[in-house]
Write a structure and sequence with these properties.
The protein contains 9 helices and 16 strands. The protein is globular and about 40 Å long. By secondary structure, it is of the alpha/beta class. It has one domain: L-arginine/glycine Amidinotransferase, Chain A (5-stranded Propeller). The longest helix has 18 residues, at 55-72. The chain binds arginine.
Length: 291
Amino acid sequence: MHSISPNINCQWTSPVGVTPYSAKGKPTILMCPPTYFKVEYAINPWMEEATPCDEDLAKRQWEQLYIAITEQAGADVELMEPVEGLPDLVFTANAALVHHDVAVIAHYKHPERRPEEPHCARWFEEHGFNVVTMPEHVFFEGAGDALIWQDRVFAGYKTRTDIASHSLLTAATDLPVLSLELINPRFYHVDVCLCPLADGHLIYSPDAFDEYGRAVIEANVPADKLIPVSAEEAARFACNAVNINDTVIFNQGSTQLTDDLKARGFQVIPVDLSEFLKSGGSSKCLTLRLG
Ligand code: ARG
């Protein structure tokens, strides 16, 4: 395992350069069964306001998502073993930022989620990744706050992830990072308000960013590829979407985004993820693209 520090000029070289996943030519997604999922503590506004979570219903909803990903969208799924006492491990998007064979492991702001870190690091080590960890004082919440679009990364900061992590992401992946301040506590990870899609498309919730953040997004993504999502649909986690080839899967009930995506040739699969919304997560949060 390697640790990166802002003061060390490090280079990441891999003898192979690809993992079995990026070499496979078929999308592979990491998920973690919701065996121990519950809303047990409150570290975001959704959890603070949550009505009681129906854990059996959550399990059935997760299975529907799993079926949509594997049988309908045709991706492979790797499963991480759930751990009792780690209810948020189900949100594998946070586990790491993955780029080819590099996995930059999350270092959580909230102590409640920190016990997930060694579990995730071990998973990536055992599956052939070069594992990179953040310094102790730098918080970084994986692909929840860092999304690869084309040849660059849109990365959120402030609510959970520290901006200091962004230059370390570049050191680890060689990708330039565009830093976006998250200004709305309900959109506390960038993956709940922005989502890269196939063919350079990008959906985003303009209200989740300040004027400067919106200008960064608009300066990078061509206008005909940029798809704004209404505040109402973003609050239903419409931006928290899983995209596999031309299929987009997200929480049910966002008809405007569904129409906008269909008009661009995507097919949309709605899934009811009500019980995960109570924890502040939806379809994309429950997945991590490995290759
Ligand atoms: N309850 C979890 C938390 O607050 C939800 C994480 C959602 N994950 C995500 N990638 N946005 O950390």
